Amino acid sequence: MKGRVIKSTGSWYTVLAEDRFIQTRLKGKFKQGDLKLTNPISVGDWVEIEMEPGQETAIIRTILPRENYVIRKSTRKQHFSHIIASNLDQAILVVTMKNPRTSLGFIDRFLVSTESFRIPAIIIVNKVDLMDGEDAEDWLQDIRDIYKPLGYEVLEVSAMHDEGVRDKILPFIQGKSSLISGHSGVGKSTLLNRLVPEARQETNEVSGYSSKGVHTTTFAEMFFLKEGGDLIDTPGIKEFGILDVEDTELSHYFPEMRAYLGECKYNNCKHINEPGCVIIQKVEEGYIHPYRYQSYINILSEEDSHR
Ligand SMILES: Nc1nc2c(ncn2[C@@H]2O[C@H](COP(=O)(O)OP(=O)(O)OP(=O)(O)O)[C@@H](O)[C@H]2O)c(=O)[nH]1
Ligand SMILES: [Zn+2]
């Protein structure tokens, strides 16, 4: 039977297969290619399962090849990675101008990650009800001016006060598998509860497990839209870093730079201060936004200092 992993709690995985939620577990070892993983299975994985004789539970026999995945370095084990979610159609970044403030630099790091994972991204600006004054207007205008021309959708909502928030977002998530990310406090849970009103109930169910003393590190959980499609929430995972991107590769993950790659004088150009650099020229001519170029330089130097 084929199904999709929708939740992982310790050694048990909830799989949705043939319209049923089935508790499954792994038996034996799984080869993961070159990846060294702390979790062999992630939410979003498609798996082949087999019911245990005379039981309501099943064994995972095969993990089907992942179309894509979001991964981060393990905080517990050196040289190991942790898959946050897989088989995604898009990643949603929720940002706010205030309480907390999301910086453009953070947005750029996120977008570099999703570009490197080959996952489309959209930006939801939440708490627009708190926007007030010139500073807020400038921040919002920058977001519109910078990201929309690059092809990233920018939606402006108030999850708390806007009754129409669900209708506004639905066309962008219906029929898709979307990961929700963003700083703590930007309103991810509030938004999720608007989009999937039953979600809160589900969350309570998880804490119900823990009161029985079962190990419940919930890595991620999938919630279903009644119109089709799903949302993956990642409690406890506030952000994922940029993983193993080579200096000369970084510009590939800036869509506005991609168009000019190969045009610089030196083919290993890092676009910092090299003579004949077309990227620097395009920044000067106004084709590449200076904030984006600044983020590019910041990421380059931060990644260097991490080595
Ligand atoms: N003013 C305003 N407050 C909001 C809005 N959406 C959410 N909030 C508030 O922001 C706070 C954080 O919201 P959450 O939904 O818990 O944020 P979160 O992103 O899930 O936070 P973590 O669980 O820590 O990752 C809560 O007090 C919400 O009531 C909004 O549109 N406007
Ligand atoms: Zn260059």
TrEMBL record:
* InterPro entries the UniProt entry points to: G_CP_dom, NA-bd_OB-fold, P-loop_NTPase, Ribosome_biogen_GTPase_RsgA, RsgA_GTPase_dom, RsgA_N
Q: Name one GO biological process term.
A: ribosomal small subunit biogenesis
Tell me where in or outside the cell this protein is found: Cytoplasm
Give EC number(s), comma-separated: 3.6.1.-
Cofactor mode of binding and number, as noted: Binds 1 zinc ion per subunit.
> What are the residue boundaries of the EngC GTPase domain, all occurrences included?
86-238
Main location per the UniProt record: cytoplasm
Which residues belong to any copy of the CP-type G domain? 77-240
Q: Which GO terms describe its molecular function?
A: GTP binding; GTPase activity; metal ion binding; rRNA binding
What Gene3D superfamilies does this protein's entry cite? Answer: Nucleic acid-binding proteins, P-loop containing nucleotide triphosphate hydrolases, Probable gtpase engc, domain 3
Which residues does Zn(2+) bind? Answer: 264, 269, 271, 277
What family, per the record?
A: Belongs to the TRAFAC class YlqF/YawG GTPase family. RsgA subfamily.
Function of the protein: One of several proteins that assist in the late maturation steps of the functional core of the 30S ribosomal subunit. Helps release RbfA from mature subunits. May play a role in the assembly of ribosomal proteins into the subunit. Circularly permuted GTPase that catalyzes slow GTP hydrolysis, GTPase activity is stimulated by the 30S ribosomal subunit.
Q: How does it assemble?
A: Monomer. Associates with 30S ribosomal subunit, binds 16S rRNA.
- What is the protein name stated in its UniProt record? Small ribosomal subunit biogenesis GTPase RsgA
